[in-house]
Amino acid sequence: MLRIAAVTLLLFVATTAAAAQDRAIRWRTDVESAVAEAKKRNTPLMFYVKGSTARKGDDLDDLEDDQRKSFRDERVFSLSQRFICVQLSRTQHKDLIEKWGLRTNLQLYVVYVQPDGTRIDWQDSLGVATADAFAQKMARVFTAHRNAIYDAEIKPALDAKAPIAGVNAALKRIRELTILSADKEVAALLDRTDLDDKTRQTVHDTLAHLSTRASVEALLAKVQTADDSAAKALSACNPAGASYMLSALDREGPLRVAAYNAITKSCRIKSPKPARFWDGKNEKIKADELDRVRRQAETVIKRWREQYEEYR
Question: pTM to 2 decimals?
Fold first, then answer.
């Protein structure tokens, strides 16, 4: 029995280690195919520049160990999925490094590059080895990239006179890139009278995905017009979106109920009350329930913002 338990423990440890390894950044080595894919997908590249594989001393070994830990950080790994990640040799790709205006004697740093090869930014080796700094830099670089795409390619398709087919394609890209700056233009689409039901649902879903103040306020406004699609979309908001619904708990009627239902789902609050609960006459019981949900939601929202807000 002890032997079986020991084997089980070893298998668990091995499986856990393998899972952790799978969630580390995987650096590609074929530069040409990576650049071709970046151009096709309009995705920025992240180049990790390394030097000789020969040992250079304990300090460099320690730095590489710290960087490998950084590559396995949950936030770093998640953000890396927004880039095409490629490893470069500083000796074999000296021409690229010089093109980017960087010194060829440096190594273990990251360069962020547009699909056309233009350097966006770079991060030194210590920054790469620090998960917080690495994640923050990736988030800033990608936000600038997606906002540039939005202004140049997507925003024109949201014009009040743009064809509906183009609107749907634009909404899809906004969700794929989580372009938070598109919230007001997406909300304005709800004023169009030519939206079919499917496209209107897509607008609602996109607003929920963005979960900004403007997005939530637009959905709440539609809930007040008895729009069931908007009420359903509210429940798909993340905890940041739920934070903009808290004030609606002070309102009477359908708006309160819709906000309550959405907050309990977004923040995964246990034991939510059914619809018939709000038809009751005991206002004290209802007030206590609202206070309970508000307190728990505020805790969840605070934790969510600390973990994810900076990296959306």
Answer: 0.80
